[in-house]
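Below is a complete specimen:
___
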Amino acid sequence: MRKILVPVDFSDLSTDVLEKAGELAKVFNSEVYILHISAPQAFLTEDASSLPNIHNPDIEEMIQEDHDLKAMVHYLLERGINARSGLIHGPVVSTILREAEKFGADLIIVGTQNHGFLYRAFIGSVSEGVLRNSPCPVMIVPLR
């Protein structure tokens, strides 16, 4: 297991997922790719912090997401874990699956909020969509 993909949404669950990825990466000397799928934006850049000082809530949110991703990478790097991140626009499940293929992921670690039956029946869940369609094994981490 050399490459672990970790999709995050910056919820409390993301911390649990990142911890589990860090534990496994340490044991297997794996590279971790932390991925956040962004809400639709007018444009994207590789480094959102380089955007001009514009007071647009969407751009400000993207800059914050970029900052949060870098903090997660830094957290793993401080623990001796090879990590990188990506902030990508697109439909959540299909973007995760596409990035897993591009990255060559050996494992995807996703969290689940354990929503009720009606939520899953009508809306579905990211973890379920990834689990059903993943090109590699998927580990589901429940909210503690």
Observations:
- The chain has one domain: 3-142.
- The longest strand covers residues 31-38.
- Residues 3-142 form a domain with the Rossmann fold fold (CATH 3.40.50.620).
